[in-house]
Amino acid sequence: MTATSPSGRPAGPAARTSARTGATADGRVELPPDAVPADPRFVNGDLLPVPLAGRRWTTYNFAALWVGMAHNIPSWLLASGLVALGMDWLQAVLTIALANVIVLLPMLLTGHAGPKYGIPFPVLARASFGLRGANLPALVRAGVACAWFGIQTWIGGQGIFVLLDKVFGGHWGDVGRIAGQPWTLWLCFVLFWALELAIIHRGMDALRRFESWAAPFVIVGALVLLAWVTVKAGGLGPLLDQPSALGWGPGFWRVFFPALMGMIAFWATLSLNIPDFTRFGAGQRAQAWGQALGLPTTMTLFALLSVLVTSGSQAVYGAPVWDPVALAAKTDSVFGLLFALVTVLVATISVNIAANVVSPAYDLAHLAPKRVDFRRGALITGIVGVLIMPWKLTSTPELYIFTWLGLVGGLLGTVAGILIADYWLVRRTVLDLAGLYRVDGPYWYRGGWNPAAVLAFLVGGVLAVGGSHSAPGAGPFPEDGLIPFLKPLADYGWAVGLVASMLIHTACMARRTRADHAPRTGG
């Protein structure tokens, strides 16, 4: 991806760099010309720092980015799924609001390196993991993004199928089946997948233009759905009066903590690769305020809309309908169905390409810079996203929130702990920018791998997900946990992984520093 920007303003005084250090008055750093060798193993145009002239994203740009990404069908399923699990509207909204305030902190901490150095996530990871070792967190993040791409694409294709079936009076789905599903559902899935790949092929500029109007359109769609359910329920009262099946006692807390970790895990992906976006920031103030204004507020508002609509569906139909597509399909209005169809398309494409294509495109380019550029990495993402069979991950709220998000959250929390510890505690935000691209630089460690980061990742990952468990028949894990004595930690996977890896990495790097500065003796 080239260093493009929505702003065309000339660089101000803060962008004037020191000829000696390459640093600006506001602390941003730019690579001097020819500072790194053209080594195809570690360098291509997409991985090099964005020049200062290209770092112009404002507070509004970052806030708008989050508005576009937060308004999507899986976000809706996340909130409505809590209602389906027994929470009332207040419990669900508070859980999601708290989760997004918590996840904002690592988002801001890892995002700091973007405006300062202009580097994407996998290059930042070189400082902690090593030039070759950075492929480990990059592949973890890329794998998760590919899975999310598949989930979003399946939900989008499913939405098209449900709504077309309603438009055609139930005959669209009354066909032969392949792998247990109507072949027309698979057709919708493939067509939606192809539409996304076509947009990806047009590049990031097309995506940015799409995002500029997609977010408000989806908000309107959610408000229309809320208004419709409110009318059906006879007012807002029934939506707010639905009682909690969990109460505020032990039953609630048993659901709350794993649900909170699941909510955090939902955006834990972006807490790693947010430098992929903040590298275009005009400064720290822009990325910090933009994210603080965009993420928690938008997700909480969307969660409120979701739980109100789901509570309303419970009042109208006697059971919560947690899928907005299934709920929209209950209308008899052809115009309403078509509007819902377009809303599903816009919402899914908006978030899927921004949140689940940018990161793996960089990550896969980092794996083989000579052969894979941003566009090829994005196309690979689209293919892998189908192979992971996303239709299985969203089959139930339990599997979606506890199994998928819980497992992902534990691993991503572990990586985030290492990145934050290395950048803030070990290096105090000071990086050798040219050294991130050189085999003779300070981040080569042992053959390109940093043993401290690898150890922290392994130990933190085992502690975070080793106790993963499922209720009988509700998931793939044993009831007593993969490692039974770690089962009590499983409900706190993201937090356990974050704290454990942070402590281990910091301790190992401190020991390494002391060893490097110890006096040498001998002949």
From TrEMBL:
<dbReference type="Pfam" id="PF02133">
    <property type="entry name" value="Transp_cyt_pur"/>
</dbReference>
<feature type="compositionally biased region" description="Low complexity">
    <location>
        <begin position="8"/>
        <end position="25"/>
    </location>
</feature>
<feature type="transmembrane region" description="Helical">
    <location>
        <begin position="62"/>
        <end position="83"/>
    </location>
</feature>
<feature type="transmembrane region" description="Helical">
    <location>
        <begin position="89"/>
        <end position="109"/>
    </location>
</feature>
<feature type="transmembrane region" description="Helical">
    <location>
        <begin position="138"/>
        <end position="163"/>
    </location>
</feature>
<protein>
    <submittedName>
        <fullName>Cytosine/purine/uracil/thiamine/allantoin permease family protein</fullName>
    </submittedName>
</protein>
<dbReference type="GO" id="GO:0015205">
    <property type="term" value="F:nucleobase transmembrane transporter activity"/>
</dbReference>
<dbReference type="GO" id="GO:0005886">
    <property type="term" value="C:plasma membrane"/>
</dbReference>
<dbReference type="InterPro" id="IPR012681">
    <property type="entry name" value="NCS1"/>
</dbReference>
<feature type="transmembrane region" description="Helical">
    <location>
        <begin position="213"/>
        <end position="231"/>
    </location>
</feature>
<feature type="transmembrane region" description="Helical">
    <location>
        <begin position="293"/>
        <end position="317"/>
    </location>
</feature>
<keyword id="KW-1133">Transmembrane helix</keyword>
<feature type="transmembrane region" description="Helical">
    <location>
        <begin position="337"/>
        <end position="362"/>
    </location>
</feature>
<feature type="transmembrane region" description="Helical">
    <location>
        <begin position="399"/>
        <end position="426"/>
    </location>
</feature>
<feature type="transmembrane region" description="Helical">
    <location>
        <begin position="374"/>
        <end position="393"/>
    </location>
</feature>
<feature type="transmembrane region" description="Helical">
    <location>
        <begin position="183"/>
        <end position="201"/>
    </location>
</feature>
<keyword id="KW-0472">Membrane</keyword>
<dbReference type="InterPro" id="IPR001248">
    <property type="entry name" value="Pur-cyt_permease"/>
</dbReference>
<keyword id="KW-0812">Transmembrane</keyword>
<comment type="similarity">
    <text>Belongs to the purine-cytosine permease (2.A.39) family.</text>
</comment>
<feature type="transmembrane region" description="Helical">
    <location>
        <begin position="251"/>
        <end position="272"/>
    </location>
</feature>
<feature type="region of interest" description="Disordered">
    <location>
        <begin position="1"/>
        <end position="37"/>
    </location>
</feature>
<feature type="transmembrane region" description="Helical">
    <location>
        <begin position="447"/>
        <end position="472"/>
    </location>
</feature>
<feature type="transmembrane region" description="Helical">
    <location>
        <begin position="492"/>
        <end position="510"/>
    </location>
</feature>
<dbReference type="InterPro" id="IPR045225">
    <property type="entry name" value="Uracil/uridine/allantoin_perm"/>
</dbReference>
